[in-house]
Structures are given as C-alpha cells and as structure tokens.
Amino acid sequence: MLAQKIILSVIISLMFLTSTIIGQVVYTQSFTDKMEQRGLTWNKPSEDFLNVFPLDRDRFFDYDLVLRSDDGDAEIRVVSYDPDANLMPNVEMMARLTTFATNADTADLFIYSLSEHLKHFYNATWVMEAEFVPKEELTHYTKGTMIALYREEYGLILNTIFHDTGKNINAYRLLFSFRNEN
Fold first, then answer.
1. Which of 8, 44, 96, 171 has the greatest number of beta carbons closer than 10 A?
2. How far apart are CA 180 and CA 121, in angstroms?
C-alpha cells in the first residue's frame, strides 16, 4: 500500500512538472516564432538571468512574453504588433502607457525621443522611451519603463520593464532590436 502511494505521488509530480515544462516551451516557442516573423533579435543580458514567467494575460492586456529577473527585482512584459496591422506606433504606445501608468497627481510621466545612435542600435525607424509609475493593480513594482521600437514592414514591439527604485535596468532596455538587413 505504501509503495502504491509513493508511485502515485511520483506519477502526479511528473505529470505536473511535465505540463509546466511543456507550457513554458510552447510559450517561448510561440514568441520565438513571432520574433522571426517580426525580424527581431534577442540581446541576452550578460549579468542577469531572466526566467519565463507564466503570465500571458492580466485584466489589462495580453502579453507575448513575460520575463522575471533571477533576483525578482524586475519584470519584463513584451507585446509585439503585426506589421500588417496598419499601425501608428506613437498612438499604440500612448494607449498602452496610459493604461499602465497611475493617474495619481503626484506621479510623473516622462516620454523621450531617443537619439539617432539608439535608433541605429535598434535598427528601428522610430524609437521612444517612457518612464512612469505603474498602477498598483497591475504590478507590485514601483517604477515602469517602456521602450517602443518600430520598423516599417516588421511592426512594433513594446518592451515594458517593471522594477523597483535603484534597480539597474540598462541591460533590459536593450533586450530586443530589429535584425540588420544590410
């Protein structure tokens, strides 16, 4: 009887582990396929490891990929838009940003047009960055940074980084770029 209980618990554990692993592989395979279609390149951070986090939807949006830093001090939520979607990248970014950012009077929202040097690094025709305070119901992190990259014929990618004050997120700003076709 004890042997049967042990075998049963091992089988249940393996089923749970297998379904979790398969879910993560399918999740990342789906995003890998989108990256290929959108002409995106992954620029792996050299210092931090990022783990796939199984959040594909919250009450605000669907996400293509959600990553968390090993230390838990940052979370990256990525959405890519199809190039055939007839996009206006600045409107899409602002719509997402106004949904993510708190409306508190004391919270600042900064939007930056990035330099030609960074456009060249990202191989993008349009690049914007925003810093904001996220809504409490969206995340427990105290700061948000959104990087929007757009390239004609490839689409738009929004890389939103939620983090706490003091976390160095520079490597996360550079996670994605468009492939250089030259």
1. 96
2. 9
Low-confidence ranges of the chain (pLDDT < 70): 1-28, 46-48, 54-60, 182
Contact 151, 124 (CB under 8 A): yes
The answer to whether 86 touches 139, Cβ cutoff 8 Å, is no
DSSP the chain: -HHHHHHHHHHHHHHHHHHHHHHHHHHHHHHHHHHHHHTEEE---SS--EEE----B-SS-B-SEEEEETTSSEEEEEEEE-GGG---HHHHHHHHHHHHB---TT---EEEEPPHHHHHHHT-SEEEEEEEPBPTTT-S-SEEEEEEEEETTTEEEEEEEEE-TT---HHHHTSEEE----
